[in-house]
Design goal:
The strands form 10 sheets. Strands 7, 8, 9, 10, 11, 12, 13, 14 and 15 form a 9-stranded mixed beta sheet that branches. Strands 19-22-26-25-24-28 form a 6-stranded antiparallel β-barrel. A 6-stranded mixed beta sheet has the order 36-37-38-39-41-40. It folds into 5 domains: about 90-325, BirA Bifunctional Protein, domain 2 (2-Layer Sandwich); about 330-525; about 550-655, Beta Barrel (Elongation Factor Tu (Ef-tu), domain 3); about 655-810, Threonyl-tRNA Synthetase, Chain A, domain 2, CATH 3.30.980; about 845-980, Roll (Diaminopimelate Epimerase, Chain A, domain 1). By secondary structure, the chain is α+β, with helices and mostly antiparallel strands. Monomer.
């Protein structure tokens, strides 16, 4: 944060809180800095209390972060910054102090969940409670009674306020403490107050409280138990202080703590929404009711606590800076952006500061999103990333950043800023640094791709906006940019409509969003943006989950076991029994069947219910197994014999052949990831997978197609490891220990505190709950069958192993034998023979093409006599004819022959129907006709349109095609009349 560019010495007082700064008093520029007779005016980010300021000395009271503005020789800044900042108020310290505080009070500290939520109702992780949603709904049992987290969050609904207000951000950290039926209001309020006043040292007289208007209990706790004066407790309505998850579901009143920056304004007519005075930093949600369909509230069986404390907001308060952006969590990024733009943040106007804040905020968002596997695209989460990246690029250009800002005009500046974000990420998400190479490469690629079209798009947008203003003046209406124009900018030039809207607003112009939406619907359907509401609902299945325990999985050790039928579902509804021929979902107390997860599909097999007295035995063919409501396995199948009912014992038997195929492919997937990292780089990471019986599919982050030699090397490594016959090691350990040992986590998977680690010694170590071979030799062989791109920066490999590998090889061998038999050659001679045949075919085609061209020219020569003479001053020869079934290339040759034969000036228009419902068209003009202002393209466009097609070309020659041969003769006649009129002028 410091910019100390002059010699200095810094002395610390005995108690370590005050500092004496000594500096020279000459050699400094007077402008734009104010001179001071005894030294230098010191500009600060926050108020600096100086007990004395004498010649060359500044006595600074307290731990203040100071920005010194001067021009002289550079010196090390880090030492000064470290000494001038109170380590207890750093963002990292605030986060750790929060977690330690609640850990000391029995809370389990859990890691942040991914920004990609394991929840189909939410696009991105927008709150700390999201990872605990199944517990709040009662769908899964709590693993711990209470927890504390620092959760990465993304919200884009207030993006237009970023940089303009002191508190709005797209990326932020939410510190939270959660109780799952362990404690409730009294403890939550007591600890929140203790944390704020004792741990963080906030003055009690600067804290205000809001409560729900009817929540007398909470009001009393704050006033009677904590001692907050009544005049600083404000009752607010449902919109502000009653949290709901949606139309139905868990809900309850909430209470918020506000910090008062200006207590001198008094306590009368207070508005807690006044951002110039207050900031809400801690929200306590008392989740105690379930809202029913009719809107009535019923008490929940388990009362929960869900809180959120904004880390950046608390940092702003404790670091005594005017907004969230100037905290040490964001400001280093802003400083780097200011350096690239060659501006001073301290001396900048409000508009420049706003732009720098936007860059600082958005860069954090895109780095953490890409780290969590979200790559730029035009749909869903990828669209959020692309929109933010393009906003940063445009904002940087508005600030004057050229190229990479370091002299390379062809370079990218986002990676430079991203390095600063990554540097700050250590205590937020340690995985970001390990993914740094991929993040920087993705940002560079996306920025350069956008810059290619940005300038053209900006010029076009300027013209569109100028036209909109001109039209508005002519019609005396409000200026408005058409939705169609906005869509062209989006679809062709990569401008997110939000950027177009920002630029338009700067000119006082609105956008017709209704017509834009219509255009978008025609082209593609964008995923809906994330909302600020987490959709929760107490579903019918929740009651079933209360009665049925988690399924005990036995499948690591056995493929057959006895089990009891705990529940039956037909079309989603519980039933007591099901008869032959019915599709059914079966819940067992224990099972050897693997349920689909971690990319591996569910097992197939059978359930057998033994024959009882006077009963037919029941058989259920299982075709799929899924997890539901936490860890309950749902066996989906068809009853082929007898009747099955709840409470009866069955024998569950997994198909051993299919299980082996899945095991082989799953272990091969682990080997594939290790091979990819060794061949193309450690920065590549998994972006998805499928482990099936017949193949495996592995998606990974990489910026280019793999070369053939790389694929060969990858296959070679994997088959070598298979041949090594390595024995796999499987163990259960803590998530912390597993990550410390280097285990790789699978993208998109959610892990508990205890994890299963599968290791191929010396090759691979991954967190994985799937089934695997015991020895790599069981895989037998591995073959890549395809490699392709599936999204920007994401590649996909499909491969086969084990039995599927043998089947693949045998099938290909059979194809080769058939090919050898057909070509009458040995296998090793096939390539040469096919090459020879292709060369023969090429020569034959050339001969045929030449023969057709000669035939067309001969036919054209017979048509030349039909040319008519047009014009009074010039004898212009005009020929418009159909040449039946002549192909396009021959038609071109005929036209070129005819314009040479007819001499200048001449115009030739030819058409043909070469078959398959196609039309070919050619217009050829000599220089003398072109000089008259007639262009071949202008002639051929309406001609092609009449024939159901299009085309173009040079002024003297144009070609086109069509799909309506029945219109050819009429179209040629229209072209004849058009040319006559033009040539007779």
């Amino acid at each position: 944060m410091s910019n100390l560019n002059f010699p200095y010495s810094l002395k610390t007082s005995s108690h370590g809180r005050d500092f004496l700064l000594e500096f020279p008093t000459s050699g400094f520029q007077s402008k734009p800095y104010l001179p001071f007779s005894r030294g230098l005016i010191v500009r600060t980010q926050t108020l600096v209390y100086a007990s004395s300021l004498s010649h060359g000395r500044a006595h600074i009271k307290g731990p203040r972060v100071v920005q010194f503005v001067a021009k002289a020789q550079p010196v090390a800044e880090e030492l000064v910054e470290e000494k001038l900042r109170d380590p207890q108020t750093s963002g990292d310290s605030i986060r750790q102090r929060f977690l330690d505080f609640y850990a000391a009070r029995g809370h389990k500290v859990l890691p942040s969940a991914s920004l990609v939520p394991d929840d189909p109702t939410v696009l991105l992780t927008i709150a700390g409670m999201l990872q605990f949603k199944p517990i709040f709904l009662g769908k899964v049992p709590r693993e711990v009674p209470s927890a504390a987290t620092s959760q990465k969050c993304i919200r884009t609904n207030d993006i237009e306020n970023v940089g303009r207000t002191s508190r709005h951000q797209t990326f932020f950290e939410m510190l939270g403490n959660f109780s799952f039926g362990d404690y409730f209001k009294k403890e939550a309020i007591k600890w929140a107050w203790e944390l704020s006043t004792s741990e963080y040292g906030l003055p009690a007289d600067k804290l205000w409280i809001s409560v729900y208007q009817d929540d007398d209990e909470t009001f009393a706790l704050w006033h009677d138990e904590i001692g907050v004066p009544k005049e600083r407790i404000i009752r607010l309505g449902e919109d502000d202080n009653f949290w709901t998850s949606g139309a139905t579901g868990p809900c309850g009143p909430c209470s918020e703590i506000y910090y008062d920056f200006h207590p001198g304004r008094g306590t009368s007519n207070v508005d807690l929404g006044d951002d110039t005075r207050f900031i809400e930093f801690y929200n306590l949600v008392f989740m105690q009711y379930n809202k029913k369909d009719d809107g009535s509230l019923e008490p929940l069986k388990q009362k929960n606590i869900d809180t959120g404390l904004g880390l950046e907001r608390m940092a702003r308060i404790l670091q005594k800076v005017p907004n969230n952006y100037e905290t040490d969590l964001i400001f280093p990024i802003i400083e780097k952006a200011a350096e690239l733009a060659n501006v001073s943040y301290a001396l900048a106007d409000d508009s420049t500061k706003t732009k720098l804040k936007i860059i600082g905020d958005h860069m954090r968002a895109v780095v953490y999103l890409i780290s969590d596997g979200v790559n730029p695209s035009n749909i869903g989460r990828g669209y959020v990333v692309r929109r933010l990246i393009r906003r940063v690029v445009r904002t940087g250009r508005l600030l004057g950043v050229k190229g990479d800002g370091m002299g390379d005009l062809q370079g990218a500046f986002l990676p430079i800023l991203a390095k600063k974000v990554i540097q700050l990420s250590t205590n937020i998400d340690a995985d970001v640094k390990t993914r740094a190479s991929r993040i920087l490469e993705e940002l560079k690629r996306e920025e350069l791709r956008f810059v290619l079209t940005l300038e053209r798009g900006e010029k076009l947008l300027d013209q569109m906006l100028a036209d909109a203003l001109l039209n508005a003046q002519g019609t005396e209406t409000a200026p408005c940019l058409s939705g169609k124009d906005a869509f062209v900018l989006y679809d062709t030039y990569g401008f997110p409509v939000e950027i177009t809207n920002e630029v338009a607003e700067e000119r006082g112009i609105s956008i017709d969003m209704n017509s834009f939406d219509i255009e978008m619907e025609k082209q593609r359907q964008l995923s809906q943006a994330a909302h600020d509401t987490v959709k929760l609902g107490v579903e019918n299945g929740a009651n079933l989950a209360e009665d049925i325990p988690d399924t005990e999985f036995l499948g690591y050790n056995t493929l057959r076991s006895k089990a009891v039928v705990e529940g039956l579902l037909v079309n989603g509804s519980p039933v007591a029994q099901v008869s032959k021929g019915s599709e059914v979902e079966i819940l067992l107390n224990r099972t050897p069947f693997y349920a689909e997860s971690g990319g591996q599909i569910g097992d197939n097999g059978f359930l057998y219910m033994m024959e009882a007295e006077n009963e037919q035995p029941a058989i259920v063919e299982i075709k799929d197994v899924q997890k539901s409501m936490g860890n309950i396995f749902v066996h989906k199948g068809t009853i082929t014999e007898g009747m099955i009912e709840v409470g009866r014992e069955v024998e569950a038997a997994v198909d051993p052949n299919l299980r082996q195929r899945a095991k082989v492919h799953h272990t091969a997937t682990h080997l594939l990831q290790s091979a990819l990292k060794r061949v193309i780089g450690q920065e590549t990471s998994q972006a998805g997978s499928l482990v099936a019986f017949d193949r495996l599919r592995f998606d990974f982050n990489f910026h280019r197609p793999l070369q053939d030699k790389e694929l060969v090397e990858i296959e070679g490594l994997i088959n070598q490891w298979i041949g090594d016959a390595a024995i796999l090691e499987t163990k259960v350990m803590s998530l912390t220990d597993a990550k410390r040992d280097g285990a790789i986590a699978m993208f998109g998977e959610k892990y508990g505190e205890q994890v299963r680690v599968v290791e191929v010694p010396g090759v691979s170590m991954e967190l994985c709950g799937g089934t695997h071979v015991s020895n790599t030799a069981e895989i037998r062989g591995f073959k890549i069958i395809s490699e392709q791109g599936i999204a920007s920066g994401v590649r996909r490999i499909e491969a086969v192993a084990g039995d599927a590998f043998i089947e693949y090889v045998l099938t290909r061998d059979n194809y080769m034998k058939q090919l050898c038999s057909t070509l009458k050659v040995k296998a090793e001679e096939v390539t040469g023979r096919v090459g020879g045949l292709l060369e023969e075919l090429r020569l034959t085609r050339n001969e045929v093409s030449a023969a057709r061209a000669k035939a067309a020219i001969y036919k054209a020569s017979t048509l030349s006599s039909r040319a008519s003479t047009i014009g009074t001053s010039k004898n212009i020869r005009l020929l418009v004819e159909s040449m039946d079934d002549v192909d396009a290339d021959s038609l071109k040759s005929a036209a070129e022959y005819l314009v040479d034969l007819l001499k200048d000036p001449a115009a030739v228009v030819l058409g043909s129907c070469p078959g398959d419902g196609k039309v070919s068209l050619v217009v050829a003009l000599t220089p003398g006709v072109v000089d008259l202002g007639i262009k071949a393209g202008d002639i051929i466009k309406p001609l092609a349109k009449s024939c159901g097609g299009g085309g173009g070309g040079r002024p003297n020659f144009a070609q086109a095609g069509g799909r309506k041969p029945e219109n050819l003769l009429g179209a040629l006649e229209e072209a004849r009349e058009q040319l006559k009129k033009l040539l007779e002028k």
